[in-house]
Specification:
Layout: H1 16-30, E1 34-45, E2 51-56, E3 61-66, H2 68-71, E4 83-93, E5 98-108, H3 111-127, E6 145-150, H4 155-167, E7 171-176, H5 184-196, E8 208-213, H6 227-234, E9 240-244, H7 252-256, E10 259-260, H8 264-271, H9 275-311, H10 314-353, H11 357-399, H12 402-407, E11 412-415, E12 432-436, E13 442-446
Parallel strand pairs: 3-5, 6-7, 6-8, 8-9, 9-10
Antiparallel strand pairs: 1-2, 1-4, 2-3, 4-5, 11-12, 12-13
Length: 478
């Protein structure tokens, strides 16, 4: 043995992985099933659905894992600070060299922890307004259809049906559901939601719901404390009576329901009135109504008799009116006869004034002949004066005619629009004008620089005109 060699050991050598998995196997074999009590802390649910948490007491902390498949089967919903008893197996996570408890089941650690959890849940739901009185719906006076959510095999449904039959038989729809244990809360929630839309499946929608079960321990009544049940009750459009447990039992469902009944039998009594009492009430109201009408009729009869006594005998009143009518009739007949007489006399007088049409025609012919003679005598006198005036006016018109002026060698000058040009100020250089001579001929001309006369331009014509004489040729000076 050399001095620099290390002493050999009999302790077996492990790799890190081998040691970690060896410890994992040892823990799982020796602690295959354990029950541990403690307080939940750091509760978190991963996106995969697995829950990771811690279970602690005043001395230590152990990690918890609850796989997704086990989470849906737990009877207790894991919450921060809840004291529970977890059942499962101890294992390790080799990658981090820590041990953990794989949960298989979970239960509350005593009634005190359960009550604490319920109180905190009650405060939470109350803060959301699920227990407000403003959400409560009034119960119908006489529902046509009643829906009942309960176990179909228990005594509760028989008590409800028997009580309804005694008081006022109604159509009842029973939705079977578990009322305790795993899955009870989900079935109750499904029943409440199902009744909201049952009319879409050919069944009548209930006017009232009763959620009922018999008495039991706090753990037995836990389904009626679950959030999903409470929210379903609060969101129901159908009024709900909660009849869970005995009179001393209270669940969160009682606070969310529209009214709480002390027992299932009490719920049936709240749901419908007593038929015999209603019939007795109707008969009593009928008798009171008949009596009231009789008294009213007697009162009106007395009033009518009193008024009739003040009016007097109708026959005497009618006789007076008849006699008065006869007098008026006689007066009216006399007035009418007098009116007809006046009209007849007027017609006779008017007829006397009428003449025969032949006589009127003869007079008209004479008048016409006389007017004709006068007219024929007057016409020559009138026409003679008018002829003289017309002849004189013609001579004056001819004397003042501008054509006579043209015959004396003058001409008429107009611009292109037909306006007369009477002075040089109305003209401009290169202005086009029209000139009319005595022969009624019109020619076009262009004004020069203002000091010379422009040569007249004859308009084009198809007919050959005779050559004008020297004395007919004219030039326009400006």
């Amino acid at each position: 043995m050399l001095d620099n060699e290390a002493p050999k050991s009999n302790v077996p050598e492990f790799s890190v992985g081998e040691l970690a998995f060896s410890l994992k196997k040892t823990l799982e074999e020796n602690y295959g099933r354990v029950r541990v009590r403690g307080e939940l802390s750091r509760v978190s649910v991963a996106g995969s659905g697995h829950m990771y948490s811690g279970l602690k007491d005043d001395q230590a902390v152990i990690d918890l894992i609850c796989w997704k498949g086990t989470m849906s089967k737990l009877s207790v919903k894991p919450e921060e600070g809840l004291e529970v008893i977890c059942t499962g197996r101890i294992s390790t996570y080799p990658a981090r060299s820590n041990y953990q408890l794989i949960i298989e089941s979970m239960e509350l650690a005593g009634e005190g922890a359960l009550l604490k959890m319920l109180e905190e849940r009650k405060k939470k739901l109350a803060a959301e307004g699920l227990f407000d009185e403003s959400r409560k719906q009034p119960l119908p006076f006489l529902p046509h259809t009643i829906g009942v959510i309960t176990s179909p095999t228990g005594a509760v449904i028989r008590d409800i049906l028997h009580r309804l039959q005694d008081r006022f038989p109604r159509h009842v729809l029973v939705w079977p559901a578990l009322v305790q244990g795993k899955g009870a809360a989900e079935q109750i929630t499904a029943a409440i939601d199902g009744f909201q839309n049952i009319h879409n499946h050919g069944q009548p929608k209930p006017d009232l719901l009763i959620i009922a079960r018999g008495g039991g321990s706090l753990e037995d009544l836990m389904p009626f404390n679950e959030e999903n049940v409470v929210r379903a009750i609060a969101n129901s459009t159908i009024p709900i009576i909660s009849a869970v447990g005995h009179e001393t039992d209270t669940t969160l469902a009682d606070f969310a329901a529209d009214i709480r009944a002390p027992t299932p039998t009490g719920a049936a009594e709240m749901a419908v009135p007593v038929r015999m009492n209603l019939m007795a009430q109707v008969l009593d109201d009928e008798q009171r109504l008949v009596s009231a009408i009789g008294r009213m009729l007697n009162e009106y009869r007395h009033k009518l008799e009193a008024h009739a006594a003040k009016l007097g005998d109708p026959a005497a009143l009618l006789e007076n009116r008849t006699q008065r009518l006869d007098h008026v009739n006689e007066r009216l007949s006399g007035v009418f006869r007098e009116y007809l007489g006046r009209k007849n006399q007027s017609m006779i007088e008017a007829g006397a004034k009428l003449r025969h049409p032949k006589d009127r025609l003869m007079d008209a012919e004479k008048t016409l002949a006389r007017w004709s003679e006068q007219l024929f005598a007057t016409v020559p006198k009138m026409t003679k004066d008018l002829s003289a005036k017309l002849e004189h006016a013609g001579k004056m018109l001819e004397a003042y005619s501008f054509e006579n002026v043209l015959k004396r060698g003058f001409a008429v000058i107009q611009d292109t629009s037909g306006t007369l040009i009477t002075e040089a100020a109305q003209t401009t250089t290169n202005q086009s004008v029209r000139i009319r001579f005595k022969e009624n001929n019109t020619v076009g001309a262009v004004i020069g620089d203002g000091s010379t006369a422009s040569k007249s331009i004859k308009p084009p014509t198809k007919k050959k005109t005779p050559k004008p004489k020297d004395d007919d040729r004219q030039e326009t000076l400006f």
